[in-house]
Structures are given as structure tokens and as C-alpha cells.
Amino acid sequence: MTRQRRRIDEIAAPAIDRSIIWSTVGALHGITIVEPFADPSDRYTCYWYVFKDEDWYQALESTKRSREIEGLLLTAGISFLTGHGYVRLSEPEDHAVVAYQSSAYPASVRHYGRLLADGRVRSKFGTGYVFEHALDRVPNCYGDRAVFFQKRENNV
């Protein structure tokens, strides 16, 4: 565990005022706030942020409850992605989906982001802010590895 990841965990632990927590995380080296949430009732998550423009996600959102979507995209995340036209990459590519996992649960995903051209990741931490961050600048609860996926139209 890196010093930066420990620091993110320390800041997020109290979870009293989310805006203070996320502003403090955004001030850490290697992390930039892109979009603070405007409304404390914001319930949109990392997977919403990454997949919200996908037709299949919009269809899910209109027919399933948020807990069902969470189950599909987190608990069975890898098989769900591959079943929706995403292929796992051996090397990262620009704009790839970054799926953070715990090596103890290789079928599940703990967090999603989008890889940027400069190698940083843009992701929404829980229902908090949208950040740009180094690949490893995420809370430890998001897992200990990142895998990359890209949508391939011919695989749908």
C-alpha cells in the first residue's frame, strides 16, 4: 500500500461532510478535482459516470433498480463487460475502461474509470467528486489491481 493510498483512506474514514472529504482528497499530489458534485443528494456512482451514454446502460437504468445494476456491474462486472462487447486489453489504450479489482475476487469490479491519453484516469469516487488521478491514486477499498477494457463494436 502506497503512502498516498493510505492518506486517501485516512481522509475518507470519518465520512462526516463529503464535500470536505473530497476536497481534501482532491488536494493530494497526483489527484485533480474535475467536477465537484453540486447537490449533496447526488447518488450517481463510478459506473454511471463511465457508462451513462451507453445504450445498454440506459436500458438497464430504465428497467432495473440501482441495487440490481450495482450487482451486475460490480459483483459480476467482468462477465457483464465481456457480454456487452468489451474485450480485455493486454496493454492499456486511450479511453479504455479501467476496472479496479481485488485479486481475491477476480470476477468482480470495485471501481470504474476511463483512461485518458496522458495515462491518468478520470473517475467518480463513489457518490463523490469526479477526479483525474494517477492509476494507483484510489482508495484501497477499490482493490489492488487495474485491468483495462475497450468496447469493440464487432464483439457486440
Question: What does the model show?
Answer:
It contains 6 helices and 7 strands. It has 156 residues and is α+β, with helices and mostly antiparallel strands. The chain has a single domain (3-155), classed as endopeptidase fold (from Nostoc punctiforme). Strands 1-6-5-4-3-7-2 form a 7-stranded antiparallel sheet, with helices on both faces. A hairpin with a 5-residue loop joins strand 4 and strand 5 (121-124).
Low-confidence stretches: none
Q: What string gives the helices and strands in order?
A: HHEHHHHEEEEEE
Q: How helical, in percent, are the residues?
A: 25-40%
CATH top level? Alpha Beta
SS element count, helices: 6
Please state roughly what percent of the residues sit in beta strands, choosing from under 5%, 5-15%, 15-25%, 25-35%, 35-45% or over 45%. Answer: 15-25%
Structural domains: how many: 1
Major sheet description: 7 strands, antiparallel
Alpha-beta content class: alpha+beta
Radius of gyration based on Cα positions? 15 Å
Distance between the termini: 37 Å
- Shape from CA axes? globular
Lateral arrangement of strands in the main beta sheet: 1-6-5-4-3-7-2
Give the CATH architecture: Alpha-Beta Complex
Overall pLDDT metric: 85
CATH topology: endopeptidase fold (from Nostoc punctiforme)
